[in-house]
Amino acid sequence: MLDFETVTLTDPASSLTATFVPGAGMVGTSLTDGADEFLGQRRGLEAYVARGKTMGIPILYPWANRLSANHYEVDGAVVTLTSGAGGVRTDDHGAPMHGVLAAYPGWLVTDRTANSVTAALDFGKPQLLASFPFPHVLTQRVTLENRRLTIETTVRPTAAASVPLCFGYHPYLTIPGVPRGQWTLTTPAMRHLPVDATGIPTGTHEQRSASSEQLGDTAYDDGFDQVPDGAVFTLVAADRRIDVTFETGYPAAQLFAPPGDDLIGIEPMAAPTDSLRRGGYRTAAPGKPETARFSITVS
């Protein structure tokens, strides 16, 4: 039986509430309006803590999705990742998956009000630096106001090295009481990055115009880049609407909708899948912290 302290935020302007668990990686476990739950619960918090099986709104850090090998190079230095060590988990193909902070207990709440919480993590501990040797402080500020949940993430280097920005989030969204076949998904113009059978980008790309279509039984596990600041992804069904806005700092996205599951992941990413190995990512330089922000509005 899990016994974690939870933080539940209340919207001063509506009946919307949001719940986060600092001791389990600052994962968002609930976004509700009365009895209606808008986050996909999947296998639940227990499976997330025990096996890293994502649910709700997890942070994927310091890389989102997969890497194409168990090592990467930064400024001539090679970092080797070992499955089961330093928080590294691998998928069925042996690819390092979703970083090292799944359910990580080291978050400390530094500020809290009725509708906001700020938590910080010192990424300077040896077990974390073994997989990502860039000392920094990682901060999340979560606010719920006017039916909008905003998550702001800041990376502040604490040593001479710049910190690669390849992280992301995986909000699993659902519209309660309406089968997913009746959901309409609207996406902005962006560039599609096809992947191979193991989920790694092939290196090809194709422009994708803004579109709006019924989700039906379409399965997604697709990556995109060239997502502009302020881009909005919208999910609509019956009298419910969810807008996911990539406000700033997220030029890439992943859409994930497994067949037979009434949810979709709309994933803001600081860089496309496998960027930690391929390069092309932004960095947070010493003395110049970087902040990224996205929001989820339920109406």
Describe, in plain words, how this protein is organized in 3D.
This protein starts with 6 loop residues before the first strand and ends with a strand. The mean pLDDT is 95. The strands form six sheets. The protein has a nine-stranded antiparallel sheet, with no helix packed on it. It has a six-stranded antiparallel sheet with strand order 14-23-22-19-16-17, with no helix packed on it. It has a domain at 7-178 and 262-298: Distorted Sandwich (Beta-galactosidase, Chain A, domain 5), CATH 2.70.98.10. The protein contains three helices and 25 strands. The radius of gyration is 18 Å and the shape is globular. It has helices spanning 45-51, 126-129, 275-278, and strands at residues 7-10, 16-21, 27-33, 36-37, 59-60, 71-74, 77-80, 108-113, 116-123, 136-145, 148-157, 163-165, 168-169, 172-173, 184-187, 190-193, 206-208, 211-214, 220-225, 231-237, 240-248, 252-257, 264-269, 282-284, 290-298. The chain is mostly beta strands. It comes from Mycolicibacterium rutilum. Pfam families: Aldose_epim (PF01263).
